[in-house]
Every structure is written in structure tokens, then in C-alpha cells.
Amino acid sequence: MPSFKVACLQVNAGPDIAPNLETACLMAREARTNGADMVLMPENVTMMEWGRSNTLAKALPEAEHPAVPAFAELARDTGLWLHAGTIAVKLADGRVANRTLMFDPSGAIVGRYDKIHMFDVDLGNGEAYRESSTFRPGDQAMVVKTPWGGLGLTICYDLRFPHLYRTLAKAGADFLTVPSAFTRPTGAAHWHVLLRARAIETGCWVFSPAQTGEHKGRETYGHALIVAPWGEVVADAGEEVGIVYADVDTAAVEKARGKVPSLTHDRPFSLV
Fold first, then answer.
1. Cα radius of gyration rounded to whole Å, the chain
2. CA neighbours within 13 Å on the CB side: how many for 210?
3. 33: Cβ–Cβ under 8 A, 6 or more apart, which residues?
4. For residues 201 and 165, is the Cβ–Cβ distance under 8 A?
5. How many domains in the chain?
6. Those residues with Cβ within 8 angstroms of residue 142's Cβ, 6 or more apart along the chain or in another chain
7. Distance from first CA to last CA of the chain, Å, rounded?
8. Which positions fall inside the CN hydrolase domain (predicted)?
9. Quick check: is 270 in a domain?
10. Rounded to two decimals, what is the model's pTM?
11. What pLDDT, in 10s, does the model give residues 112-139?
């Protein structure tokens, strides 16, 4: 597998789709100008909104969402492999899917993934989240075939469920995506260590574009990361809006797994 250049975007999205979409497309074009072959966007890249009623009012069916043709044109025009973060897709049952779309350089959608694990937590000091009240969880994992290897799709809170990543790696993932809007409290405590752990456990590269800053009174952590298969953080965006890059050595996957082939060492056991 040849090597390639990856870029992860870090944005501060607001509640309205149009300006967020414009910003994301401009940043992706900048990344392409700087040599990126693949660009990844964060969770909620086109809309950071809070509350069931607000989210339902602004979510759109995939066929009507302005981000879909805009990102298809972006990929086609630039020749990028484009991971379009996530968009809020209104479903027939009245709920919403938090959905990743992956575009190839022709602008075709080659991957869809709906976030499986719902962020239902109480962080203290009045900060609570109930994604399951608005979103329908997905039930299908996916590995997208790219010219460089398999790309396993996950989203944000999925990060806390390591069996998903092990499954993706065993299904052919060489790279893992974790587009996120991590809260500041959980990010400061857990973000770096969890992403490094997922890389180490699977021997995969991990690409983690992120939201950062304040969004209508809530804060996201930032620190879009690119982590190598041995666990090294090779790029960290800090807390500012921007883009981080890495030259991805695809041979590092086989090298890491050759040193510690834990993906082949599963054994049955019983709980007593």
C-alpha cells in the first residue's frame, strides 16, 4: 500500500447549516491545496444544535440535505477522498440519524455509517446529554475500501466501546475514524488516552477531526488528533480552529501488528 497525506479539520460550528457548510468546504479546499489526499471533517460539521426540538426542526432527509450535493461537488472538483464528518438526517420514524458519508474522488457516496452508541450521560454541574431522545442509533459497522487500505467508520461516543474497533480491524480496517464533538470535561479527562488506546489495541492509524470552542453555552474540547499504529500522537490541533496533517505510512500498520499481533490472540473464556 502506498503512503498518503491526510488532513483532519477542526471547526467551531454554529447552529445554522449554510455558514458551517461554507467554512468546511473552504477548509477542505485549503487542505487539498496543501497536498492532502484525504480530508476528514468532525461530527456535526454542518450544525451544532442543542435540544430535541431544535435538532428536529433543522434536520433534513439525506435527499434534501444541502451538504450532500455540496460535498459531492467538493470531492469531484478537488479529487479528494472526503469523509464528511456527520450530518443530522431526518428519518421516516421522526427521529434523526447522526450520519457519516464518505465520498470518493468522483463524488460518489461509497460509505454510510449511523452512530451506534448514544451519548446519554450526566457530567455534573447541570451538564447532561440524552442523544437517545432524539437520535436513532445505527446497527451496522462499516469499513470503506480506499486505495490505501480499509477505513473503519465510527463517531465520537463510539470511542468508549473498544470491541467495535477490534471488530473493524479484524474486518480489514487499517485506519479508524473518530469524528467528534467531545465535551470539554470528558475531552480533558479521556480524549488523548482513549484515542491512543484504540490505535494501540488495533494497530491502526486513527484520524480524529474535532469540534472546538463554545457553542451556545456548551463547550467542545478540540484537539483533533492523528495517532499512529504504535500509539504516537503525530498531530494535535490544540484548541484553535484549523487543520492538522500527517503523512500516513501505511507500512506502519503491518509493522505494529507484527510486533504485537494481539488481533490474532483471542481465546474463548467463561465467566465464573
1. 18
2. 30
3. none
4. yes
5. 1
6. 111, 112, 113, 152, 153
7. 44
8. 4-250
9. no
10. 0.96
11. 999 999 988 888 877 788 888 899 999 9
Residues in contact with 138: Cβ distance below 8 Å, sequence separation at least 6, in sequence order: 97, 113, 114, 115, 116
Q: What is the 3-state secondary structure (H, E, C) of the chain?
A: CCCEEEEEEEECCCCCHHHHHHHHHHHHHHHHHCCCCEEECCCCCCCCCCCHHHHHHHCECHHHCCHHHHHHHHHHHHCCEEECCCEEEECCCCCEEEEEEEECCCCCEEEEEECCCCCEEEEECCEEEEHHHCECCCCCCCEEEECCEEEEECCHHHHHCHHHHHHHHHCCEEEEECCECCEHHHHHHHHHHHHHHHHHHHCCEEEECEEEEEECCEEEECCCEEECCCCCEEEECCCCCEEEEEEECCHHHHHHHHHCCHHHCCCCCCCC
The answer to whether position 247 is within a domain reads: yes
Confidence of residue 1 (pLDDT cuts 50, 70, 90): low
CATH code of 187's domain: 3.60.110.10
- With respect to residue 50, please indicate whether it lies within any of the assigned structural domains: yes
- The answer to whether 263 touches 257, Cβ cutoff 8 Å, is yes
CA–CA separation, 131 vs 96, rounded Å? 10
> Amino acid identity, residue 212?
T
Residue with cell 504516537: 232
In a domain, 271, yes or no: no
Strand 210-215 versus strand 218-221 pairing type: antiparallel
User: Pick from 185, 246, 255: which is nearest to 220 by CA?
Assistant: 185
The x, y and z cell numbers of residue 160, run together, are 468508549
Give the residue numbers annotated as catalytic, written as ranges: 43, 115, 156
Count of beta carbons in the 10 Å neighbourhood of residue 137: 14
What domain range is 235 assigned to? 4-264
